[in-house]
Amino acid sequence: MNVLYCGDKNIEDGLVISILSLLKYVSEPLNIFVMTMDLEFQEKRIWPVSIETVSYLNDRLKKQNEKSSVVRIDATELFCAALPLANMGTRFTPCCMLRLYADQVSDMPDRILYLDNDVVCRKNFSDFYYQELTDYELAGVADYYGKWFFRRKLLHMDYMNSGVLLLNLARIRETGLFARCRILCSEKKMFMPDQSAVNKLADRKKLCQRAYNEQRKLHKETVFQHFTTSFRFFPWLHTLTVKPWQIEQVHEKLKLHEYDDILREYTAIKAELKANISA
């Protein structure tokens, strides 16, 4: 199985947790790619995912399966060659748009599962990963809130959340989907630019069951839980954002203990990484 993560140093906590959750349910080799970059733009500095973290995770994967690997891809040059200029100053980090450059990485496999770093695996996902995708550019799940507001057809809720996407990169290269998305991000300022661009320009996208990208709360059939911002109505209308690495809030605000075994291992790994870097 091939899996893609994208981001800067700030994704490291989520990266560790998400990968540990995959290891719990996958016995076959995992080929994990981490696209990152080192960039200074408009007095802002983007620090890349560290080599030390990737190396540690690579060793951890190989303990379970020698054929597994974690590869760090420095996408700085690719990104700078086609800057999403219209969206560089938005509240969304430029690293969110790195997935739109995956088609330009020569070693990237034709089928790859993209995951946000705040996505945690809860069940075996082979059915989702190995689904028929020949005629589609990508497969994903409708955005829990966005499907009501952003749609190309009035009666068709096809606006996807981009946190879990099964990519047919071979098809994407043929249609030029990501190339067109990069141009759009360069020319037009958008809300959630990468997600908006994909939804606007994808000609063939396959909608899947909510269980493969649960964005609201845990259900017994949930395969991937995505810790997004959600609305709560009690005791007043407010938003709630809790990420997997915010362990106390996961327990207290979400009343969730489903991933405690994974979070314990994450805590130990984080301490070990800190000790190794300090040494």
Please count the helical segments: 10
Sheet having the most strands = 7 strands, mixed
* Helix and strand pattern: EHEEEHEHEEHEHEHHHEEEEHH
The side-by-side strand order for the widest beta sheet comes to 5-2-1-6-9-8-10
| Rg over CA atoms | 18 Å
Low-confidence stretches: none
Which overall shape is indicated by the principal axes computed on the Cα atoms? globular
What's the count of strands?
13
Q: Average pLDDT across residues?
A: 91
End-to-end separation in angstroms reads 35 Å
Judged by helices, strands and strand pairing, the structural class is alpha/beta
- DSSP helix fraction: 25-40%
Strand residue percentage: 15-25%
From the structure provided, what is the oligomeric state, counting identical versus distinct chains? Answer: single chain
Description of the structure:
The strands form four sheets. This protein has a seven-stranded mixed beta sheet with strand order 5-2-1-6-9-8-10. The protein has 279 residues and is α/β, with parallel strands linked by helices. The radius of gyration is 18 Å and the shape is globular. The protein starts with a strand and ends with a helix. The longest helix is centred in the C-terminal third of the chain and has 19 residues, at 260-278. The mean pLDDT is 91. It has helices at 12-25, 51-64, 76-81, 126-129, 146-149, 169-175, 177-187, 193-201, 247-252, 260-278; strands at 2-6, 31-36, 39-41, 44-46, 69-74, 111-115, 119-121, 138-142, 160-168, 205-207, 224-226, 230-232, 238-240. Helices cover 34% and strands 20% of the residues.
